[in-house]
């Protein structure tokens, strides 16, 4: 179990999953590139982040709910957590009691994202981490949640299956170990670099060229040494 002082942000998981170097540049070296997409993301989150609580039919909608898991060492704020009445749905999922309300309630986290669904699981692990926090805080099973993407403006449901849970827990452990090590991984150019918000800071192609130049200089120095040996 982690202490309160050791908790790390849930939001870091998506960057670590996307690219360990991106995470290190942002969280260890404080590099952040604001662009049109990230600005849109902030605006979208500001709309979702206003603390509030409202009813939509039988569903209680809470915004900006603070989350934490001492088991995984994570903390964060959920954009939206819906609480669905368990009885009216007749679901098998055990619900949780809520202060001032009767019955049991099933938490359902909803994360707002600008842009389109991404390749890979970087968004999914972040949402699953929120679910794991809710499970620990409320002693309840959170079976699924959803994303609301800006493009297209619609919901995508995510099931928190065993594979996703295991991946999220492994990533949380890696987040703590890399935070402790404080080492920034080398750049490795790949297709995802094209959508990386800190591409200009990282310069993955230039770093690759530097490596080649380094190897070239190494080869030259070896040749010189060999020539020297032949001369003597
Ligand atoms: S540009 Fe590529 S290697 Fe560099 S941080 Fe972004 S994704 Fe990672």
Please, could you describe this protein's structure?
This protein is an alpha/beta fold. The chain has two domains: 4-185, Alpha-Beta Complex (Lambda Exonuclease, Chain A), CATH 3.90.320; 190-232. Helices cover 44% and strands 22% of the residues. It contains eight helices and seven strands. It has helices at residues 12-18, 20-27, 36-49, 86-89, 122-138, 162-181, 199-202, 204-231; strands at residues 8-9, 52-56, 59-69, 74-85, 105-113, 144-149, 154-159. Strands 1, 2, 3, 4, 5, 6 and 7 form a seven-stranded mixed sheet that branches. Helix 5 links the parallel strand 5 (105-113) and strand 6. The protein is globular. 26% of the residues are buried. Mean pLDDT is 84; it is low at 210-217 and 227-232. Bound molecules: iron/sulfur cluster. Iron/sulfur cluster is lined by residues 19, 21-22, 25, 187-188, 192-193, 196, 198-199, 202, 204.
Key descriptive features of the protein:
globular; Lambda Exonuclease, Chain A; 2 domains; binds iron/sulfur cluster; alpha/beta; 232 residues; 7 strands; 44% helix; seven-stranded mixed β-sheet
Structural class: alpha/beta
The tally of helices reads: 8
- The overall strand count is 7
Shape: globular
Mean pLDDT: 84
Q: In the residues, how many domains can be counted?
A: 2
Pick out the low-confidence regions: 210-217, 227-232
Main sheet overview: 7 strands, mixed
Element order, helices and strands?
EHHHEEEHEHEEHHH
The Rg value, from CA coordinates, equals 23 Å
Portion of residues in beta strands equals 15-25%
Oligomer: single chain
| Termini separation | 64 Å
Approximately how much helix is present in the residues?
A: 40-55%
CATH hierarchy, class of the largest domain: Alpha Beta
CATH topology of the largest domain: Lambda Exonuclease, Chain A
CATH architecture of the largest domain: Alpha-Beta Complex
